[in-house]
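Key result, reporting period 2: structure in, sequence out.
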C-alpha cells in the first residue's frame, strides 16, 4: 500500500516538476495567458504560486490590476486556500500529519524530529529556502500512519530515519 501510494504520488510529483520547468517564470508571461477578467483570478494565482512558490504583494497588485478585482478580494482568496502562500516558501514542503491516527502512531515525535533536523519550527521556512515545515490534520491515508507529505509524495509508516533520508534526497 505504502509503495503504491509513493508510486502514484511520485508520478504526480514528477509531472509537477516537468510542469514547473516548462512554466513561464516571469509574471508578464503568466498574465499574458489570461484574459483580463475577474473569473481568472484563481487560475492566475495558481500559476504565480507554482512559478514563484509564493505570491508577493507586488504580484498580488499586478494580478488584481490585470484581472480587474480589488486587492482585498484577491487577498481574501489567497488567504482562504491553503495552497496559496503570501510569504516565501521553501522549495520543498514538509507536512507532518497530526490527525488522530497519526498522532497516536507517533506523528508528534516526527514533527519534533523535523523541527530539530531542519532547525525551524512549524510554519517556518529554512534560511536557505529549501524546506517549509507544517502540520496537517489527516491526509486521508490513516492505514499508513504515521504519514508525512513531502511535496506531493505521501511517506507512509514514516520514521525519523526515513525522513532524514528523504530530506537528504531532495
Ligand atoms: S490521521 Fe494521518 S492520515 Fe489520517
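The corresponding designed sequence is given below.
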Amino acid at each position: 500500500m505504502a509503495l503504491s501510494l509513493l508510486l502514484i504520488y511520485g508520478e504526480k510529483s514528477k509531472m509537477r516538476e516537468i510542469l514547473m520547468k516548462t512554466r513561464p517564470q516571469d509574471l508578464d508571461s503568466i498574465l499574458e495567458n489570461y484574459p483580463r477578467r475577474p473569473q481568472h483570478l484563481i487560475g492566475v494565482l495558481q500559476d504565480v504560486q507554482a512559478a514563484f512558490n509564493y505570491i508577493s504583494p507586488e504580484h498580488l497588485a499586478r494580478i488584481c490590476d490585470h484581472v480587474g478585482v480589488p486587492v482585498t478580494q484577491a487577498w481574501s482568496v489567497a488567504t482562504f486556500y491553503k495552497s496559496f502562500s503570501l510569504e516565501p516558501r521553501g522549495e520543498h514542503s514538509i507536512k507532518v500529519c497530526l490527525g488522530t491516527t497519526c498522532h497516536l502512531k507517533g506523528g508528534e515525535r516526527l514533527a519534533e524530529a523535523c523541527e530539530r533536523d531542519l532547525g525551524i519550527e512549524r510554519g517556518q521556512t529554512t534560511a536557505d529556502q529549501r524546506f517549509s515545515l507544517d502540520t496537517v490534520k489527516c491526509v486521508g491515508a490513516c492505514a499508513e500512519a504515521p504519514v508525512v507529505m513531502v511535496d506531493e509524495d505521501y511517506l507512509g509508516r514514516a520514521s525519523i530515519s526515513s525522513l532524514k533520508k528523504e530530506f537528504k534526497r531532495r
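Helices lie at 2-22, 27-32, 41-52, 57-67, 71-80, 100-104, 107-118, 160-169. The longest helix spans residues 2-22. This case is discussed further under Risks and Mitigation.
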